[in-house]
Amino acid sequence: MPQQIHPLSDGGFAAEVTGLDFAGPPDAATTATLRAAFRAHPVLCLRTSGIGAQQFLALARVFGEPQTQLLRDRRHPAVPEVSYVSSEHRDVRGTGQRIVAGSHWHTDDSYMAVPCAATLLYANIIPASGGDTCFADTTAAYAAMPEPLRRQLSGQRAIHVYRSRRNRAHVPKRTAAEAAESPPVEHPLVRTHPATGRPAVYLNPNRIERIAGMPVDAGDELLDAVLAFCTQPRFVYRHRWRLHDVVIWDNRCTMHKAIADYGDQKREMLRVLLKGERPE
Question: Which helix (H) or strand (E) holds 153?
């Protein structure tokens, strides 16, 4: 079956690739096809019939250089560049409560000085129903943003921290070593994508502590307004997972959230983060 690319959303924000053979490392033609597809579609779904951690890592390398994630206990024991996102995770060093990863709008890794460029998730175990992931197109949102709101964002920078006072989703407690690797950082609220040259809102409601140089109340009001604008239905694609899907998304121009509507059913994803660059 030849490779085919089909849009999953209006305007090409999300697309799927079918007809791929994952039996061995991707060849040069497949690599070129996938890279071009990802440049055109910031959310890209690859339909597979099932792959292991090593195959997943090899596929991730098509798109960039994998990095290890911050939390050591989430890493795959044999393939450290691959980590687990599981409905059974708990805050073992903190409150012990269940961790529902990514249940509110965010972009991955923004609390790092050099955030990851992209994330890949592989659907290893999915619930019988529920567990969708929503993606927001922050390039389109910025382009459509009313001029007064855009002017308010101009030149603004935000302080990102691992555990924000605005955080609506519980995050696990870090070790001392992990905390030392992730001190507070400052990033622009609008960043220029290094490949496309297009500006996009760079917002992480889960990790932003405040807007630098702005009174806290005024900053919160602006952050809330920008979030509400960027997550309107016209900018959002909702992905319904199939078993063994791989989805890659560009954190530099998207936000996402997982819908935790599957009760006690198990949901387990494998994840790879790809190295990025300092936001500009």
Answer: helix 147-153
